[in-house]
Amino acid sequence: MSGTIYVINPNSSESVTQGIDAAVAPLRSGDGPAIACITLPEGPPGIQTQAHVDGVIMPMLKRAAALENEASAFVVACFSDPGLHALREQSRHPVLGIAESGILTALTLGQRFGIIAILPTSIPRHLRYVGAMGVTQRFAGDLAIGLGVAELADGERTLERMTATGRRLRDEHGADVLVMGCAGMARFRAPLERELGIPVVEPTQAATAMAVGRVRLGRA
Length: 220
Known about the structure:
Elements (H helix, E strand, L loop, with lengths): L3 E6 L4 H11 L9 E6 L10 H6 L1 H11 L3 E6 L7 H7 L4 E3 H10 L5 E5 L5 H11 L5 E6 L10 H17 L5 E4 L8 H8 L3 E2 L1 H16 L2
Parallel strand pairs: 1-2, 1-3, 3-4, 5-6, 5-7, 7-8
Helix pairs in contact: 5-9, 7-8
């Protein structure tokens, strides 16, 4: 099966891209489509403000345009889905954003979803997106762990904070499914799900799974 699903990390952190690559590894198969995770060198080390979100759109569109003929689909691997609709206009291939896909997947796993954000400044962007998607009636809440993208490398501290935050979303806000609000959290999904006893959606996995399905069904 020809064509590659390009999972684009719009920040410049290779460690985040490596984590994304590990997260989507179970979705790879011998008969394709191939899945390639790439880093945007022009991006900031972590996308943590609206200015960061806006600033990576044009470089990401340029990178995707250069890959258009090799691609079978694109995944925008940032929870703010920067440039998602512009890339859909630009490309003839399926384009999935991890925030949109993660939330849509959560709606199939529970009645009320909560989001685990990295920083408090991320929450207003998430709230705008939830409102734009029209799913506020099934939204339980959005709480931050208070760590930046680079700080997620401290695995023990990150999991501890994610567990405490997830417990609050479950017990105080009524969430019965959680969405990780950052592409750099993938390795914590399984232990967090075991600890909390409710489904946890890793959004890059959700988006890439959708992309694989779209590509395979489109070529069936």
